[in-house]
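Q: Hi! Curious about what Membrane protein looks like structurally. Here's the sequence.
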Amino acid sequence: MPARDRLLAVLVAVLWGLNFLAIHATLGQFPPVFAGALRFAVIAVPTILFVPWPKVKVRHLLGYGLGFGTGQFAFLFIAMDTGMPTGLASLVLQASAPFTVLLGAVFLRERVTPHQLGGIALAVAGMVAIAWQQSGHAALLPMVLTLLAALSWAFGNLSTRKAEPDNPLHFTLWMSVVPPLPMFALSLVMEGPAAQWRSLTTLGTPTGLTALGGLTYVVLIGTVVGSGLWTTLMRRNPAGVVSPFSLLVPVVGLTASFLFLGERPTWLEVGAAVVVIAGVLLGSLRFAPKRELVTV
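A: Let's find out. The predicted structure is below.
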C-alpha cells in the first residue's frame, strides 16, 4: 500500500471519528430520529437526480437501507440523545464487525475460524466491561441501543454482500433514498410534529447554527468525502490492508470527545476499549493460507 494511500486511510479514520462530534452537535437542536431523517433526505434528493442507479436488486438496496441506514442511525441517535457518551458510541459501534462475522456464518454459511471466534470473545468481554461500568451510572439503556445500532449495521452488511454492487459509492448513496420516509414516520410517532417544527423554526439560534454545521459535516465530509475516499482506497488496495485503518475511528472519537466535550473515560473503559479494538481486529480478519490478511 503506497504511503499516499496510507495517509488517505488515516485521513478517512479522522474524518469518521470527528463525525461523532458532528452528530453530537446536530442532536443539540433536532430530535434524534428527525435528525436521522434529515441526514439522509439531504443526500437522497441529489442522489436521485444525479447519481446513476448502482445496478443491484431492489431488495438488497432496501435491506442495506433499512439495516445500515434506518436501524443503525435511529438506534445510534436515540442512544446518544439519551446519554451515550460520544466517544464510547464511536467505540461500541465497532461491534458491527464481529456481529457481521456471526451473522454471515448463520445466514450466508460463511466459515468462522478459531481465531475469529477468539477475537469475537475478546470484543464481547470488552463490551461487557463497558456495559457494567455504564450500568453503574444508570446509562445501560443507551449502551444497549448502541449495540442494536451495531447489529443493524451488521444486517446491512449482509445485504451489501448479497448485492455485490459494481460501484460501491453509488450503492451507498442510493441507500440514502430508503431511510427518510420510515424515519420521518417514526419521528412523527415518537417525537411529534411540534418537536420537529420547533427544531426547524429555531435554526437561527446559536444552537441551531451549530447543529446545521454538524449536519453539513455529517453529510458532506462524513458521507460524501469519507465514503468516496474509502471506496477509492478499497479499489486500489487489498481489502485486508485497508480495513484495519477503520479501527482508528474509535481512537479519534474517544480522543476528540475528551478534548472538545470534556468526556473523561475511566481506566476500566480505556482498558476495555483496547480489548474491544483488539478483538474487533482479530475477529474481522481471516488468515489466508499464504498468511495474507483479507476481510471476511
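A: A fun detail: Confidence is low (pLDDT under 50) at residues 289-296.
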